[in-house]
Amino acid sequence: MANICFICEKEVEKGYKVKDSFVLEAIRKIKQKFKILKNNQLYVCENCLETYKKRRANFERNNKINLAILIIITIIMFLIPLINGLDLSIGNIISNIIVLIILAAVLGLLSIFTYVPAIEKEISLVQTTSEAISQQQTSQTIAQTNAIVPLANQPNAIQPISLAQKANEIEQEIKTGIEAAKTKKIKKPAKKKI
Fold first, then answer.
1. Buried b (16+ CB within 10 A) or exposed e, 20-45
2. DSSP 3-state of 10
3. What are phi and psi of 154, to 5 degrees?
4. Domain spans of the chain?
5. Residue among 45, 61, 169 nearest 114 (CA)
6. pLDDT tens digit at each of 194 positions of the chain
7. Which residues contact 121 (CB under 8 A, 6 or more apart)?
8. By CB distance 3.0 to 4.6 Å, which of 8, 81, 152, 164 could disulfide with 86?
9. Is 126 exposed, middle or buried (0-12, 13-18, 19+ CB in 10 A)?
10. CA-closest candidate to residue 23, choices 109, 105, 84
11. What is the DSSP letter of 117?
């Protein structure tokens, strides 16, 4: 896992962290399904901050333009027939709504292709991967020792068993139950004569 600049795609030591959003999560899930996920932490380095601000402003402006286009088309689709004296039937309304949904989906996909995520306002020092791994390992060993030590100090405590041992015990119980059921003869109820 590396710390990569979103703009220049180089490793960074100090930068603005990119905020996680549903679009980034969706992209990560898709990449994970195709097994091409690199699992990088995204930042914007100080050198690329001006470029980022321009791209983000352009992205937000395009979203506003797309929304304005959608509103204008909606007004045209519903008001023009009324001004011309045509009746809006249920079929026309449903077809207009379907066209608007398709148009909104196309505009949404276009905005996703130019997506520029937001960043945090404060600059942060980037943690190296070795520091992150060592912190995870120390927290795991502390948690493991805290879980085991109290049981070792109490002689009457139930000691944990491994999952494989428990699975073997359950399997043996099922086998003995099946064998016992096979050996028992099941009596069929006698039919009553009427």
1. eeeeeeeeeeeeeeeeeeeeebbbbb
2. coil
3. -110, 110
4. 3-125
5. 61
6. 788 998 998 998 888 999 989 999 998 999 999 989 888 889 999 899 999 999 999 999 999 999 999 999 999 888 887 887 777 788 888 988 999 999 999 999 988 888 999 998 877 776 654 555 555 555 454 444 444 444 445 555 455 556 667 777 888 888 887 777 777 765 566 666 66
7. 16
8. 81
9. buried
10. 109
11. -
* Cβ-based burial of 90 (10 A; exposed 0-12, middle 13-18, buried ≥19): exposed
Tokens of 120: 């945090």
Q: What is the DSSP string of 30-70?
A: HHHHTT----PEEEEEGGGHHHHHHHHHHHHHHHHHHHHHH
First vs last Cα of the chain: how many Å apart?
A: 80
Sign of the dihedral through C-alpha 123, 128, 129, 133: negative
Residue labelled with tokens 């404060």: 122
